[in-house]
Give the backbone structure.
Amino acid sequence: MNHTTFLDEVRHILDDSQIKTDPDSLDNWGKDWTKHFAPAPNAVVFPKTTEQVARIVRLANTHSICLVPSGGRTGLSAGAVASNGEVVVSFDKMNAIGTFYEADRMVEVEAGVITKALQEFAESKNLYYAVDFASSGSSQIGGNIGTNAGGIKVIRYGMTRNQILGLTVVTGKGDILELNGGMLKNATGYDFRHLFIGAEGTLGFVTRALIKLEKQPVNLTAMVLGVPDFGSVVKLLDKFGKALNLTAFEFFDSVAIDKVLTAGHAKEPFESRTPFYVLLEFEAVSDDVLDTAMSVFETCCEDGLIEDGVMSQSVGQLHELWKLRESISETISVFTPYKNDVSVLITHLGDFINDIEQIVKDNYPDFEICWFGHIGDGNLHLNILKPDNLTKDDFFAKCQTVNKYVFETIKKYKGSISAEHGVGMTKKPYLDYTRSPVEIEYMKAIKAVFDPNGIMNRGKVFDI
């Protein structure tokens, strides 16, 4: 492994402005939002074309250099952390929105396009890009694809995977593959596109994508409901889900709303405080839909499922209510949260959260716990907040000792240890709670085909 020779040869591919080796750059592009691992890359390169990416990958194979992809670096599982002398491949300079296929409601984008920029492009065409989450202003499409990002609209539109009609990828060998070409119907053998979605850059790097756009939703309306217990949250999902065409169904607890309101990131939705809150959204396409929503609300109040509530009356109020949910991650980040991003079938949610609550009470009696998540798709975020009297390392160590009990509960309900944040390095030790040994061996075999020298994001998802 000779980084000096490798970089000398990379300079025949890229100009000096596309290569950084200074300490500040190595720190900035060598990490993501996780704080578990210190960044230690050897260099950062900024290709501008798929062909440049392919040439870099081929050189890396020649010199046995490991590569780590870098997008918006908003990941929460250390999937984009370069901690072992790797070369970071940043897609910041591959950020063009290309051809728009009007008849197909599809657009080609490079991997470095910011999620928010794609959303705004879709709006300019009177269309809608449905994948949305708190980091949309900085996350990049390539990273979204690498983790199969979800967010707040999954109940209606599905994960990132559901929006991808085609991919251009550079494999771990340095081959360029054009996958599916944007077709809705293509029954010609294996669809490698889906292998790269959610693979966290371990098979190769996504450089371009063909993205499906949706029709614009009509008169989005939100309700925030104060709820007495988590069991009521699940019952409300059933009742409102049957009556309305929901676009989102989120929940958060009193700790989350206290932190958000104290930080001044949102306004009180109503005077009373309750243990849990639901934020649901739907298209109010007619007065009849609004009447239905109010009828369900009143019935649920009579049944004791709702203690208080509010409905948006304008676009401005809609955005204000969403701040209650979308501000949580940013607000609690100052508390160095230990995050668990898990999912189970909606059928099991009530029993699952009761089991987890007991584990938390038994093992974290002095820790503050913050719950929120996308209940509409069975995804819960368990955040344990670091107390001031513990160092980060001591705090993480205490949390990790209880992971076994949390993940055994997930396995009991046949759930996932990572619903939407990926595996990366933080969840790698626990992969076998969701994937069987046979599955993991097949995953390793697939990696060996696309990345025989193991240079692509080595050490992420599993060890080879």
